[in-house]
Write a structure and sequence with these properties.
Blueprint (H helix, E strand, L loop, with lengths): L12 H5 L17 E9 L3 E2 L4 E4 L4 E4 L5 E7 L2 E8 L5 E9 L4 E21 L10 E6 L12 E5 L5 E8 L1 E8 L6 E7 L4 E3 L2 E3 L8 E10 L5 E3 L4 E6 L20 E3 L4 E4 L5 E7 L2 E8 L3 E2 L1 E7 L4 E3 L2 E5 L4 E10 L10 E6 L30 E3 L5 E7 L2 E7 L6 E4 L8 E3 L16 H4 L2
């Protein structure tokens, strides 16, 4: 399978952590010529950003920008690095990935600061509740890469002697956090980072299985409409016993930046794919399992795998992007007593977006298990009736209910089923005009 993703796609997270000292020593070893990284940091509102700390993540290479926002980091070893820029107080930040060539200068270009926060947590043992020092924490933005470009920045930290860690200067957005510790099963979770806020990232690691174990590794890809294949970060791969019920629901990527929460996922054997689409599930007892790869907005893929003691089973997955299905709903709103049409009534369609369930109902154009957030520019979730009391909506198939409000009438709602025509007969309100709730409180507006 051909994957378009730059020449260094095979570099692993471990390679990002340890880029120095690979290979043997000795007098015959040629001396590595270090490189340098240059660039400029700017603020979207004020231009050049002076006094910003620019670092090579995971290494002790750090400088401050000059009055023009420029920086130069000397003596950087060759390889792929994440460069971070963090403003005073950590409330602004950004990160880019650069490739440093031996003895050459790499221009990182312009780094534009964004609103940022941090993730901080405590890593403990599920068996003893003791803090776990020297655990590796990797943080990658939960986004889909569908074009040939540098991998998304990976932030790496290690827990201190008290088992705690903090990664600051993370731009507002959704992230996948993975924690690894020798002798324990890896753990991953989705979370959201808010501006000038600390997001909790506590993790409780399960001890690795005793006795002989094996591993499942591979890469998750996404296939676009034109057939192009690209690595897919943030996909969940989960192992369950054959014959068992399907896995628990996958937590949504986010309810939006306001979510600000961390959601670990159960105690099954599972992992999230990293920035290059790769995943690794280790410490699995030998046996036959059902492996499933799933990500919101995509049809999932499922297969049977055999795990053998002391060996690694390879399993790649290709998920397909799913487009939402729209349908038209029309109807009329009339006075229940007189039968006369009601003009100016407001009609709202509300969509329900539950966590991804593998057992979700399959419909034409939407494979089982996919949940699609509609594009508000391509649908009509709100309408006002004309002088004949008629309305028209163009809604995604995730719509579950329609609400109607009109002055002087009791509000009404109808559950959406297979009907394409839904009429409403409103009862006059005996106690006076009905007051519409604030516009932002309508369910349909919250879902747009």
């Amino acid at each position: 399978m051909e994957v378009k993703h730059l020449r260094f796609v095979t570099i692993t997270l471990a390679g990002l952590v340890c880029l120095i000292g690979c290979g043997g020593g000795g007098k015959q070893q040629p001396q590595i010529q270090q490189g340098r990284i240059t660039g400029v940091v700017s603020d979207a509102s004020s231009g050049a950003a002076a006094g910003v700390t620019v670092s090579v993540d995971g290494m002790s290479y750090s400088v401050r920008t000059n009055a023009n926002g420029e920086f130069a980091i000397e003596g950087v070893p060759p390889g792929v690095h994440t460069v971070t820029a963090i403003g005073s107080g950590g409330t602004q930040g950004c990160a880019v990935v650069v490739e440093v060539e031996e003895g050459n200068e790499t221009n990182a270009g312009e780094l534009v600061l964004r609103e940022a926060g941090q993730i901080s947590g405590l890593v403990t043992s599920a068996a003893t509740s003791e803090a776990l020092p020297d655990a590796t924490v990797t943080i990658v933005e939960a986004v889909v890469t569908t074009e040939d470009e540098m991998p998304h920045p990976v932030r790496i930290a290690r827990t201190n002697e008290y088992g705690s860690y903090t990664v600051s200067g993370l731009p507002v957005g959704d992230y996948v956090v993975t924690v690894d510790k020798e002798g324990y099963r890896s753990a991953s979770f989705y979370t959201s980072v808010l501006a000038a806020t600390t997001t909790p990232g506590d993790v409780c690691l399960q001890p690795a299985a005793s006795g002989p174990t094996g591993a499942l590794k591979g890469t998750v890809y996404v296939q676009e409409d034109d057939g192009r294949i690209s690595p897919l970060p943030g996909a969940m791969v989960i192992l369950t016993d054959l014959g068992e019920e399907e896995p628990k629901p996958l937590p949504p990527v986010s309810d939006g930046p306001s979510a600000g929460r961390s959601e670990p996922v159960g105690d099954e054997y599972w992992a999230y794919s990293g920035f290059d689409g790769s995943y690794s599930i280790e410490g699995v007892p030998p046996g036959r399992y059902q492996a499933t790869a799933v990500r919101p907005g995509m049809g999932f893929e499922q297969r049977e795998v055999a795990i053998e003691a002391g060996s690694t089973t390879q399993a790649d997955f290709t998920l397909v992007l799913v487009l939402p299905v729209y349908r038209e709903i029309t109807g009329t709103v009339t006075n229940a007593l007189t039968g006369e049409p009601i003009a100016g009534a407001e009609v709202f369609a509300a969509a329900d977006f539950p966590p991804v369930l593998l057992s979700g109902e399959a419909r034409p154009g939407r494979p089982r298990g996919s949940i699609i957030i509609p594009d508000p520019d391509k649908c009509s979730m709100y309408a006002v009736t004309n002088d004949k009391g008629a309305y028209r909506l163009l809604v995604p198939d995730s719509v579950t209910i329609i609400h109607v409000y009109a002055l002087g009438f009791e509000p009404a709602e109808e559950v959406v089923d297979e009907r394409s025509v839904i009429d409403f007969k409103l009862k006059p309100e005996g106690g006076g005009d009905y007051q519409l709730p604030p516009l932002g409180r309508h369910p349909s507006r919250l879902s747009r």
